[in-house]
């Protein structure tokens, strides 16, 4: 009887040890997204963005984690911006070509990844669209120039919490897109970020209330810059960060663009 008890105790000890090793060997969960130039998930983020109809990505802008191996494998065509994650499908919706877009020119621009949780890294890679890109349809591989405009091999190293990359943007025209990609070294995953850009300085011509919507080109004329020391009433307009905002109610010290969709400031578009 004692020998059976000892055997059971030994088996229990082995099971606990195996479970402990399995837990400690499991890779840590990683999270990150591109904040500047703003990615689609940054424009949707509850903490920084003002876009409507973003779904769950509003609360998890750092979670666009799909299969790695892009472009030969990874997220499928039409689901690239969401990393193939179905619950973030709003990122693949082209919104009629009216996503907010950053105005750019050819030359070097700094891009920033904000890592909520860092992880052992294989590489960061950036691709830009080619002449076949249609901003009114979900992104496909055939619309990307698969010769990267930036590639940095990390060899399994750990990135900084705030990781910046100086990316050389080629001369192009009209609306284009940059795909930023962070590949994890010791899991099967990678993070995807689609960044809408415009070479013609038109910004975003679409959704009312989008932070990139230029609206009336003269809408900001005569509107004062926002001041943290000024009290504003509902309906008061201010200019901040190149965008026009209107207060929904009395406010003071709340920075436009930082209060989210349900905050005090209503984004009226770019100046």
TrEMBL record:
Signal peptide location = 1-32
Question: Which SUPFAM superfamilies is this protein grouped with?
Answer: Carbohydrate binding domain, E set domains
Cite the residue spans of the region called Disordered.
202-225
Any keyword Cell inner membrane? no
One Pfam match, given by its short name, reads LPMO_10
Which CDD domains does the record cross-reference, listed alphabetically? ChiC_BD (cd12215), LPMO_AA10 (cd21177)
As one GO molecular function, the record gives: monooxygenase activity
Keyword annotations:
Hydrolase, Monooxygenase, Oxidoreductase, Signal
Q: Where is the Chitin-binding type-3 domain?
A: 223-268
Record keyword Phosphoprotein present: no
Q: What is this protein called?
A: Lytic polysaccharide monooxygenase
């Amino acid at each position: 009887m004692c020998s059976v008890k000892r055997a059971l105790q030994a088996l229990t000890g082995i099971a606990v040890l195996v479970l402990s090793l399995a837990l400690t060997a499991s890779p840590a969960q990683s999270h990150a997204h591109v904040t500047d130039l703003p990615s689609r998930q940054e424009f949707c983020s509850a903490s920084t963005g003002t876009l409507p109809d973003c779904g769950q990505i509003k609360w998890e802008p750092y979670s666009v984690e799909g299969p790695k191996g892009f472009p030969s494998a990874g997220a499928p065509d039409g689901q690239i911006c969401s990393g193939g994650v179905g619950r973030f499908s709003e990122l693949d919706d082209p919104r009629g070509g009216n996503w907010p877009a950053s105005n750019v020119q050819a030359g070097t621009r700094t891009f920033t990844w904000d890592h909520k949780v860092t992880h052992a890294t294989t590489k960061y890679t950036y691709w830009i669209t080619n002449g076949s890109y249609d901003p009114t349809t979900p992104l496909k591989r055939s619309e990307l120039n698969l010769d990267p405009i930036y590639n940095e091999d990390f060899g399994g190293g750990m990135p900084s919490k705030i990781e910046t990359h100086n990316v050389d943007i080629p001369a192009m025209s009209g609306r284009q897109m940059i795909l930023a990609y962070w590949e994890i070294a010791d899991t099967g995953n990678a993070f995807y970020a689609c960044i809408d850009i415009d070479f013609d300085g038109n910004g975003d011509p679409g959704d009312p209330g989008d932070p990139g919507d230029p609206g009336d080109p003269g809408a900001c004329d005569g509107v004062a810059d926002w001041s943290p020391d000024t009290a504003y009433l509902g309906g008061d307009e201010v200019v901040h960060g190149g965008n026009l905002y209107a207060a929904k109610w009395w406010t003071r010290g709340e920075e436009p663009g930082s209060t989210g969709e349900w905050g005090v400031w209503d984004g009226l578009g770019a100046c």
